[in-house]
Amino acid sequence: MIEDFHFLRPWWLLALLVPIAIAWTASRSTDIRRQWNGIIAPHLLDKLVIDGTGHSRVRPWLLLAAVVTIAVIAAAGPTWQREAPPFVEDTAPLVVAFDLSPTMDAIDITPSRLERAKLKVKDIVALRGGARTAVVAYAGSAHVVLPLTDDASLIDTYVDALATRITPIDGKDTVKALQLAEDMLAREDTAGTILFVTDGIEPKAFEAFKRKTKDGFVVLGVGTAEGGPVKTADQGFLTDAAGARVFARLDIEALKNLHALTGADVATLTADDTDVRWVAQRIRTNFAHKTSTQDDRWRDLGWWLVIPIVMLFAISFRKGWVVRLGALLIAANIVFEPGKAEAAEFIDMWLTADQQGRRAFELGEFEKAATHFQDPMWRGTAFYRAGKFADALDAFAAVDSAESWYDQGNALLHLMKFEQAVAAFSKALELHKDWPDAKANLAIAERLLKNQKEQEEEQQDAPNLPPDQMQFDDKGKKGKAGQMNIAEQTSEMWMKNIQVSPADLMARKFAMEAQESKP
Q1: Claim to verify: residue 397 and residue 415 sit in the same structural domain
Q2: pTM, whole model, 2 decimals?
Q3: pLDDT for res 186
Q4: Which of 97, 318, 422, 473 has its CA 20 to 30 A from that of 86?
Q5: Does a structural domain hold residue 63?
Q6: Pairing state of beta strands 247-248 and 228-229?
Q7: Residue 341 domain flag
Q8: Which pairs count as long-range contacts for 341-347, CB under 8 Å and 24+ apart, including other chains?
Q9: Are residues 356 and 410 part of one domain?
Q10: DSSP code string of 379-391
Q11: Residue 409's domain spans which residues?
Q12: Do 275 and 220 touch, CB atoms closer than 8 A?
C-alpha cells in the first residue's frame, strides 16, 4: 500500500547530492559561452560560437547522473510490503505435546490412536527437514521426553517408545503440558509453535489457551466422533464401574469451541497426508507472522531498480563513453560473486589453484582450500585444519620428507593409530636428526601406545564371569591393597549389564519427577 511506502535505509538519500554535483559541474564545464564570457565581447561571441546540431542530446554526464540517482534510491531500500523471514522452515522451533491418557489406546483408528499419532508426528518431523523439535508427554502430569533437537533419528526413537503406561498419574492436565512447553520455548530467541496431539482438551484448559504469547498453538485431534473401545496393557479392554466397555469418542464440538474462543488452529487426523502438510504450514505461518510482527521485517524492493540501471549502462557502450567503467563494474561483480561459473573462470585467469587455496586457507575455509591446493603438503594441512585427518594422511603420504612424516604422525595420533604414529615420527627423526618437535611427539605416541597395550592386556586377563557371581582367591595369593566403594562399583556394573528400553527409562524418570513434585 502507498501509505506503507518508506525507505529501509533513508540515510542513503543523502548521497543524492552526488548526482546533483555531477550535473552542476558537467553543465558548467560544457557551457562554452560562460567560459569565454569576459574574454570575448558579447556581440562577437555570438558570431563565433556555433551551437552543436545533429548530435545526440544525451550527454555522458547526464547518463552518469541518472544511473547514480537510481542506484542511490535502490541502496536506500524502497519498500511497501512485509516479507516472511528467510529460512522459516529451518528455524521455527516446535514442541510436540503427546496426550498419553488411557483413551489414546482406543482402536477407532487402526492400529490405535496413539500409534497413528506417532506416525503423523514422524511425518511432520521429516517434512520440516531438520528443524529443531522437542517432545513432551502428559496425562495427569507433564514431562519432558526430549528437549529441542534437530536429530530426527533420536526423535523417532523416543516417539516410538511412547506408551500410555509410562505416565505415573492418570487423568489429563493439558494446562501442565502447556506450561512445560511454554517454558521450553521461552529460552528461544525466535517464536515457536506448540502442537498438541490429543483426543480432547478439557474445558478448564481453554483459559490457558487464551493467553497471548509469542508462541502459537496447533491442536491435532486424534479419534473419531463414533469412538471405539480402549485397549489395556493385557490386551483386554477398558471397562467402567458397571463392567461395560468404555467407548472413547472425539469431542469435535469441543475442539471447534476451542478454536472459536482462543483462536488456536484445530484439525483432526486424516487418512492421507493432508493433516501433516496442514500442521507444517501452520508452523511456518505462525513463525513468519510472529517474526515479521516482532522484527518489523519489510521486503527490500530496491533490487528491481537494477533493471533500469543495466539498461542505462547499455547506452554507455558508445565511442568515447564509459565502456571501460562498465567493463570494470562487470569484472568487480564477478569477483565479488564467487559462487558463479563466470566468477570461477575470471579468478582462474588471475590466480593459480594454489593461490586460490591459500586465499581460502587464510579465510578459514579449510575444506574449500583443500579442493584448490595442488601442493600435497598444503592440501594435507588444509584437510588437517578441517578435521579430516584420514584425507590429510593420504595427502601427506605423497611426499617423502621429514616434514611429511612428522605431519603423518600427527594425523595418525588423531586417528588413534599409535603404533603407526610411532613409526612415522621415527622416520621423521631419521631424515631430520634431533628435531625437538618430532622427539616430543614421538614420546607422546609411545606413551599412548603403551597405555593402549596395557588396556588390551587387562581386557584379555579379565575373568569372564556371569553377572552377580563372585569368585574367591583360594591359592593364597594376595591382591593389590586398596579401597573400593562397593555401592559405586555395583551401580556401575548394573548400569553396564542391564538393558532397559526407552519406554522403561521414561516411566522411571516420570515417576521420580512426579514424586519430587508432590508437596
Answers
A1: yes
A2: 0.48
A3: 85
A4: 97
A5: yes
A6: antiparallel
A7: no
A8: none
A9: yes
A10: HHHHHHHTT-HHH
A11: 351-458
A12: yes
Characterize the bridge pairing of strands 193-198 and 6-7: unpaired
Residues 138 and 239 in one domain: yes
Q: What is the mean pLDDT of residues 236-242?
A: 80
Taking the CA atoms of residue 472, residue 478, residue 484 and residue 488 in that order, the dihedral angle to the nearest 10 degrees is: -30
**202 and 106 fall within a common domain:** yes
**CB-CB contact of 124 with 273 (8 Å):** no
Residue type, 485: N
Q: Do residue 121 and residue 171 come from a single domain?
A: yes
Q: Does residue 188 register a pLDDT over 60?
A: yes
Q: Return the amino acid letter for 452.
A: Q
DSSP reduced 3-state for 372? helix
* Amino acid found at 275: D
Could you tell me if residue 192 is inside a domain? yes
Residues 413 and 286 in one domain: no
Is residue 68 a contact partner of residue 18, using CB atoms and an 8 Å limit?
yes
Q: How far, in Å, CA of 450 to CA of 49, rounded?
A: 100
Cα torsion at 167, 169, 173, 178 (round to 10°)? -50
Q: pLDDT digits over 413-438, tens only?
A: 889 888 999 999 899 899 988 888 88
Q: How far apart are CA 413 and CA 440, in angstroms?
A: 13
- E-strand spans in 126-214? 133-138, 142-149, 193-198
**Which alpha helices (H) appear in 202-296, and where do they start and end?**
206-209, 252-262, 274-295
Q: Angle 50-53-55 (CA atoms, 0-180°, nearest 5)?
A: 130
